[in-house]
Design goal:
With about 300 residues, this protein is of the alpha/beta class. The protein has three domains: about 120 residues, Nucleotidyltransferase, domain 5, CATH 3.30.420.40; about 100 residues, 2-Layer Sandwich (Nucleotidyltransferase, domain 5); about 70 residues, no CATH class. It is about 50% helix and about 20% strand. It has a five-stranded mixed beta sheet, with helices on both faces. Strands 8-7-6-9-10 form a five-stranded mixed beta sheet, sandwiched between helices. α3 packs across α11.
């Protein structure tokens, strides 16, 4: 029986799925493998760990895999795709296809059909395909200048808002939110928090996201609502450019990523804001895992290769 392997190589974690022709057999998760963020060595370690663990859970060896697809932020760039392909080829036989994270997300939600997928994970983007097969992206410009509504953006925004609030009221430095953020980065004071936030290279703001969603502090609630609105604007941008004209034709919208999965506030705000901006949208709030798209593309790649 042929087996296939799909990988979602993210900036926080790497998910690997093994399946046969029709069934998902096993998944495994390892550390970050986004080569731009973590470098080649860490990326290799995470990919190899996820592949070995997923194959073991499925009861197969890596050499039994008939086709592989990996999607990741920036992975479609030729110079990075070559490195990623060579890394995976150390364990898996050909064919191995490397695509962007947008492609596996769109595949997971819509397969071949039209629609817009909005991803909010470590980073963020909106990516759509119209009825003629044309595609368009909005956002996804990276954590330093974009990724609005992402876990990184939320973590950074919460820190900034907390420090501003501390300027107005020193007691904010002793709040539960401040304590939770300090614990996340293993720090002792708000001054340490500011120093870490401004350090070079930049810290892992996405690591603060769990603290943000577990707090009912006004700072975090306002930030999560702002994230939902930012993500809705990304979606509306793609819809407006990719589906102009007939306001009566519905536009399907799907969502992926840990921010949507773990924050009801972000989901609800996103839905309400997008419906306000684009009433013709049909929004499915069931969060889809992009690795499902990678596995589907792996099956298709192997079939085309044969």
């Amino acid at each position: 029986m042929p087996y296939y392997l799909g990988i979602d190589g993210g900036g926080t974690k790497t998910t690997c799925a093994v399946g046969d022709e029709a069934t998902l057999l096993a998944t495994a998760t390892a550390g970050a493998s986004n080569i731009v963020r973590v470098g080649e060595a860490t990326s290799r370690e995470s990919l190899h760990t996820a592949i070995r663990q997923a194959c073991a859970a499925a009861g197969i060896t890596p050499q039994q895999v008939r086709g592989t697809c990996i999607g990741g932020a920036g992975a479609a760039r030729p110079e990075l795709a070559r490195v990623v392909r060579e890394t995976i080829a150390q364990l898996l036989p050909a064919p191995i296809v490397v695509v962007g994270d947008m492609e596996i997300a769109l595949e997971a939600v819509f397969a071949f059909g039209p629609g817009v997928v909005v991803n909010a994970g470590t980073g963020s983007f909106a990516y759509g395909r119209d009825r003629q097969g044309r595609t368009l992206r909005a956002g996804g410009w990276g954590f330093a200048i974009g990724d609005e509504g992402s876990a990184h953006w939320i973590g950074r925004s919460v820190v900034a808002a907390l420090l501003r609030a501390t300027d107005r009221d020193a007691k904010t430095a002793e709040s539960r939110l401040a304590e939770s953020l300090l614990q996340s980065w293993q720090l002792n004071s708000v001054l340490d928090l500011a120093r870490r936030a401004n350090s070079i290279p930049p810290p892992n703001f996405a690591a603060l996201f769990p603290a943000a969603i577990s707090s009912e502090d006004r700072i975090t609630q306002d930030t999560l609502k702002a994230a939902g609105k930012e993500l809705a604007e990304l979606a509306a941008t793609v819809i407006g450019r990719l589906f102009p004209g007939d306001e009566q034709v519905p536009v399907p919208v799907g969502i992926t990523g840990g921010v949507f999965r773990h924050s009801e506030v972000v989901r609800e705000t996103f839905y309400n804001e997008l419906r306000r901006l684009e009433p013709r949208t049909q929004v499915n709030l069931q969060v889809v895992d992009p690795v499902e798209g990678a596995l589907r593309m792996a099956r298709r790649t192997a079939s085309n290769h044969n």
